[in-house]
UniProtKB/TrEMBL annotation:
GO molecular function, one term: sequence-specific DNA binding
UniProt keyword Mitochondrion, yes or no: no
Protein name: AraC family transcriptional regulator
PANTHER family noted in UniProt: HTH-TYPE TRANSCRIPTIONAL REGULATOR NIMR
C-alpha cells in the first residue's frame, strides 16, 4: 500500500505530448530539464525554477523538451485537501526546493510515513498551496476555433522573424478585423500581446536549456535589440533574463 504522500524521483528522455492523470494531488517539479504543460486551454513552460500543483483526477498534457530529472510529490486527498485552484503554475522558492529535496527519501514503496516524514510532507503541502495562490503570468491561452489556431500556429512559426498582423491574416485567409475579434474573444489578448508572450516563453525555454548568451537568445526569439528584449522579459517574468537564468542555477 502506498503512503499518504511520497516523492516520485525519476529521469525521462525528451518525448512528445502525452496525457497524464492521477488520483492524487500532484506537485509536478523537475530538478533538471524543461517541460511544456497544457491544460484547461492554456500552455505553460516549466523550467527547474517553476512547478505546477494539479488537483487529483485532473488531466494534463505533458511534453518533455529536454532530458528531465523529476522530483515530483504526490499527496493523497486524505492527506492534503484540494488546492484552491484546479491547476496552478508558480515559481518555486528556496524553501520549497529544499522541502522537495528532503521528501526524496520517501518513495511510493517506503511504507507508512513516520511522524517526522508526515511533518515534512505536511509542511511542503502548506508551502506549495501558499505559492499556488500566486500563479505565474507566463502563460499562453490556447485558441479554440480552427481559424485562430491556424493564425497562432503561423505566429509561432514566424515569431523569430518579423511577422505582421496583416500578413498573418492574409496567409490564414481571414480579414484583419475578423482575426482581431477572434484574438480578443478566444484568448483575451491582442495579436501583438500573443506574439510577445510566445517570444518570452521561447526565451524561457532557451535560458533553461542552453548557456547561449542572452543577446543571442534575444535575437533568436525575434527581438532586434537587447534593451527591448530585457524590457519585455522583465514585464512578464518580474526579473531580467540574466536574473532568471541565475535563479535556475541556484
Amino acid at each position: 500500500m502506498q503512503p499518504e504522500a511520497y516523492c516520485f524521483h525519476r529521469s525521462f528522455d525528451p518525448a512528445g505530448p502525452s496525457e497524464f492523470q492521477t488520483d492524487r494531488h500532484y506537485l509536478l517539479y523537475a530538478l533538471e530539464g524543461t517541460l511544456r504543460l497544457e491544460a484547461d486551454g492554456k500552455r505553460w513552460t516549466l523550467p527547474p525554477a517553476r512547478a505546477a500543483l494539479i488537483c487529483a483526477n485532473h488531466p494534463v498534457t505533458i511534453t518533455v523538451l529536454s532530458r528531465l530529472t523529476s522530483a515530483s510529490v504526490l499527496f493523497s486527498p486524505a492527506f492534503m485537501g484540494p488546492p484552491d485552484q484546479i491547476l496552478s503554475v508558480f515559481d518555486m522558492t528556496p524553501l520549497a526546493r529544499e522541502l522537495v529535496k528532503a521528501c526524496r527519501e520517501w518513495g511510493p514503496d517506503s511504507g507508512p510515513l513516520s511522524p517526522f516524514a508526515t511533518r515534512i510532507f505536511g509542511t511542503l503541502a502548506e508551502v506549495v498551496v501558499h505559492l499556488s495562490a500566486h500563479p505565474s503570468k507566463c502563460v499562453l491561452p490556447m485558441p479554440v476555433s480552427p481559424a485562430l489556431k491556424a493564425a497562432v500556429q503561423l505566429t509561432e512559426d514566424r515569431a523569430h522573424d518579423s511577422p505582421t498582423f496583416d500578413e498573418i491574416a492574409r496567409l490564414t485567409h481571414q480579414s484583419s478585423r475578423a482575426l482581431a475579434r477572434r484574438f480578443a474573444s478566444e484568448m483575451g489578448m491582442t495579436w501583438r500581446e500573443v506574439l510577445r508572450r510566445i517570444r518570452i516563453m521561447n526565451a524561457v525555454e532557451a535560458l533553461a536549456m542552453s548557456d547561449a548568451p542572452v543577446t543571442q537568445i534575444a535575437l533568436r526569439v525575434g527581438y532586434g535589440s537587447l534593451s527591448g528584449f530585457n524590457a519585455a522579459f522583465r514585464d512578464c517574468m518580474q526579473m531580467s533574463p540574466t536574473e532568471y537564468r541565475a535563479s535556475l542555477r541556484r
